[in-house]
Specification:
two-stranded antiparallel sheet, two-stranded antiparallel ribbon, alpha+beta, 4 strands, 2 domains, globular
């Protein structure tokens, strides 16, 4: 990960620049939340991003995903009826 994209989060930890701020917004996030967003480094995203809401892209959120959506005034993702 390029140094310009990360900031210290402890002695041996880093986080994506912007995620420790309030309100949090990752420096690699492109677009407008609630409209259309994408990750500028998707293929190289860190493990925390890979593990967060792995099924959100297919409309299935988890509690962490829905918490993040609520913080931005968005409705939770609910599974589609079978």
């Amino acid at each position: 990960m390029p140094e310009a994209l990360v900031e210290s989060a402890g002695v041996q930890l880093v986080c994506m620049r912007g995620t420790a701020a309030a309100p949090a917004r990752c420096v690699a996030l492109r677009g407008a939340i609630g409209q259309s967003v994408s990750c500028a480094i998707y293929e190289f995203r860190p493990s925390a991003c890979r593990e967060f809401a792995p099924l959100a892209a297919v409309g299935r959120g988890d509690e962490a995903c829905n918490d993040a959506r609520r913080r931005h005034g968005l409705a939770p993702l609910v599974p589609a009826a079978a």
